[in-house]
Design a protein that fits this description.
The chain has about 190 residues and is an all-alpha fold. Helix content is about 55%, strand content about 0%.
Amino acid sequence: MDDEDTADLPVIVEPEAGEQPAWGELSPVTRLPVPHQPTIIGPVPVTGKPGRAGAPGGPLAQPLGPSLVAHIRAHPRETAAIALLGVGGLLLPVPFWFIGALASLLSRLWDGRDKTVAFLGPVLVCLAVTIPLAAVVGGHGNPVVVYLHLLRVDAKYLIRLGCLASAGYLAWRVRRGPRLRIPPWQKHRS
């Protein structure tokens, strides 16, 4: 082996028996990191373009299980709010949706927009689905009466759908991390 071949290997320093390192020296067994090699955890895909499935850094590069557990442990407040909003809102929307929305106020990761989605998301989904549905169904009477009839009939299902959609959005926001606040004078104007 040349000196060039051994430059990429970790260095292991083992002292002789009974010898203690002096203060400030290396400990008995020390692995020095090689600065130009990335730390790889788990299987490494060999083929594919960056950003695609099967590529380094792509969607399949990291398994879902450990990442999910790590997010749950790192963000317990957000996890509780998502569970209350999603699962609780699916089962019984009226108390759990509000409890989940109130739990979202305790989050340090989400900003005001995300917390607003927790409160208003189910209602906005309900309204957004009912308006086109009223146009499709039509009817012989006043359009407002048709809309209110559909809203009364379908609201319980659409609120549940809105709770799931809001919980999905908030889970996506946890995965993305906090928004970076850019001062107005540093925003790129085109």
